[in-house]
From TrEMBL:
UniProt keywords, alphabetically: Kinase, Membrane, Phosphoprotein, Transferase, Transmembrane, Transmembrane helix, Two-component regulatory system
Subcellular locations according to the entry: Membrane
Annotated ranges, domain HAMP: 206-258
Residue ranges occupied by any Histidine kinase domain in the UniProt entry: 275-465
Family annotation (SMART domains): HAMP, HATPase_c
EC number of the protein: 2.7.13.3
Protein known as: histidine kinase
Transmembrane segments: 179-203
Amino acid sequence: MAASYVLVTATAVLLVEAVIVALVLIPQSKASDLASVLQEQAGGDTKVLSLEAARLSAADPGLPAGELLELAVEESGGRTIVGGGRPPEPGYAMLELVIGTGGEIVASSALGIYQPGGTLDVPLPGHEGGGASTTRVGPSTWHFSPVLMRSANGFDTLGYVYVQAPDDAAPRGLQSGEALALIVPGALVLALVVPVGLVFGLLSTRRLTSRVRRLAGVTTAVAAGDFRPRVTVSGADEVSTLERSFNVMTDKLGAAVESARLTARTEARQAERGRIARELHDSISQDLFSLSLLAAGMRRAAPQQLRGQADAMERTAARAMREMQALLLELRPVALEDAGLLPALEGLCRAYETRLGVKVEAVLAEVALAPAAEHAVLRLVQEALGNAIKHANPATIEVRLSARGDVTTVAVSDDGAGFDPDDVTARHGMGLTLMRERVTELGGRLDVRSGAGGTTVTATFSAPAPGQSTGTAGPA
């Protein structure tokens, strides 16, 4: 950026130098065309006078040539230099005379030098032409152009338009010495301005350059996939607006990437759960079913002393099949995002009731939960149902979901065989541990009450509003 200051300054100085050179060259080229300018000036005024003379002669054919020429000058209406109306060629000090065929001056634009009635000190050429000589005003360049009028014999010459200009009348450009006197200071100024502009550019852009460099560094980190760095916002200019906008953009981009990662992990986990469920159903469930049929056949065909063992084998196979079915339902993916929490819970309860023959009563109230909290509630109910089926052998299970203020309560009760909540390592340790972890991540509390009349698992937590964070809870 400092170089741009130097470049702009140098360009300005060079433009000034170019203008000086133009002042030297253009007027000199114009001065070399003085003769052609005089010829053009005389030719234009000759045409005007010739037309006026033709008009006057047509109106009065008897006018003599001298009088006709004087009347043509008067009737030109200021359209010629000698008539006093039209100025000479801009930039040239010239005079114009109308000369009769005898050399007498008929009209003059410079009465102080050439009076009408006098004679010209340059001989008449008898035709159009020009030249250079010393006249009353000194060395001059001049040009004659005849005033013609059509007659029976062709064209008659009524007189001449004479245009004269001193040799130094043309605009004089700067001489080489004068131009040099202007160019040299400009070069010195350029030599001084370049280092000054460089220093000024460095001082004035140092802070801006460091800010842009810092922004570029953070941009490189973000482009590499690291969304943690942020730009320090300083000042209140356009760059600070860019810094602030970049931070906002990085926050949103990081959140979007993290959401995509969570979604990918969730989908991968759901796919894995589905794969495990299919393998369990296709292999172990079929084997357990076959074992149950074999045990039933053995019980019917075995001798009396072996029927007890066969009956125990059949009950064990049936219990294993029941637990396997409960496990498959736990692994069953639920489309929470498409259905919503209440339809997902109702569908889960119907699945347990239909496939396992256990009555499941669902008392569900509308609650406003964040997506992560909804998922945690769904998984908690799913695990509580699975534990009840696998370990308690209940006839009825009740699922309740309610809210009072910002406190949400989830309760799963069964009428099966109870257990000692203080000694759950052997049978219920993993399921209760997972449920407790889920509720803890929501900032809530899990209570387990069990006895001879059944078991009740209750989770209580403050419900975050949709869109708010729920801690580190994630889909499982």
